[in-house]
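Submission sheet (multi-component)
Chains listed below:
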Amino acid sequence: MNGTLYGIGLGPGDPELMTLKAARLIAAAKVVAYPALERGDSFARSIAADLISEDADEIRIPVPMSVERAPAQAAYDAGAAQIAERLAAGDDVVVLCEGDPFFYGSFMYLFARLSDRFDCDIIPGVTSITTVAARAQKPLVARNERLTVLPGPLDEVELRSRIEGAESVAIMKVGRHLPKIRSVIDDLGLTAKATYVERASLPEEVVLPLSEAPEKAPYFSMILLAKGTDPWL
Amino acid sequence: MNGTLYGIGLGPGDPELMTLKAARLIAAAKVVAYPALERGDSFARSIAADLISEDADEIRIPVPMSVERAPAQAAYDAGAAQIAERLAAGDDVVVLCEGDPFFYGSFMYLFARLSDRFDCDIIPGVTSITTVAARAQKPLVARNERLTVLPGPLDEVELRSRIEGAESVAIMKVGRHLPKIRSVIDDLGLTAKATYVERASLPEEVVLPLSEAPEKAPYFSMILLAKGTDPWL
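Outcome: structure written.
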């Protein structure tokens, strides 16, 4: 009988923000797979490191950070092939995913390649958006407010129109897009309502009003913008 | 010295989808507070029940389910006063919150009443939106897709325009608004792309294509709509 593919959300980075289910499945896993930088670390593996058994086999999937999509797709092809081999041999495979597997998670590339042939179980994780709200001590959405989640790479025109039409906004993957995003929010007169957070829940976390954000932001940074249109109190 | 107020996200319902941090704090808590139906159960307490110490003091906050806001606000006033008394006496107080405390969570009403006087620590939880995507086996957002979260009580015109302009949509708090939401999605020709999920992660979970959804939906139900505009594969 084939094994099951587990897509495990690890949460935002603090290992204690993993779920009990994630911790149980990782600790019991014989085969653990995870994405990694081509010549470097795996953030996902670092979150789960203390739980991975010394006897577990590890499948490292080095994902090239290129704008072209073909190299990354080829990396997922190769990773999926290795995982498929173990699943076909009857082993369960646990895939480690930062945050949540289906919320901008690279797990979906493996899921797309394997879910037609193998049973899959997706374990949701704590996402960065509520972690950032918690750390900034800013409620994200109340009552009948709407939430819009935008990726930072969107172009300026798109960003502006999406922010204008929204109530609560979380802008993900800020990184090198910070100057563009900041200028859109400034132009809209919303800077005073925006909070900048990087590496939420990790020891090196930074939480600042957007007006005091640094010039350079890492990939794992976010901007929260709550217009407070629903007077929920 | 005053105690600390902990707002603890419990996740969507399966006790195993609680975080390790939530479980640790609840098990150690001397004072546990939670919202409850006026003459009934507390869903939040039921998720955490196995972890609450027999010696813990419990503060039950009965929240009236009325359209008028004054009765609920009065209930939170009374609950906050009881919590403040314990915090002022130096006890930490753990508040149990379904899902995530700052994602449509009633914890924000207590936070607003207490955070100016007491230290607060918010522990994020797994939200229903990624749980629903996991259980429906439908990736929520990939690459540069945008996500829109809408509450079901929005009126038909607002719902329609928000769904038209969006890519991935999660409609929360469906309940008695199901016929209205279904008619908007039908009119837009998007029914084939919509999934209906109730009580995600609980034993009585239901996952169905929207076209097969029941006539009556409970409050804890959601509709996911992924237009798949970003060809991420």
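Remark: The first helix of chain B runs from residue 20 to 28.
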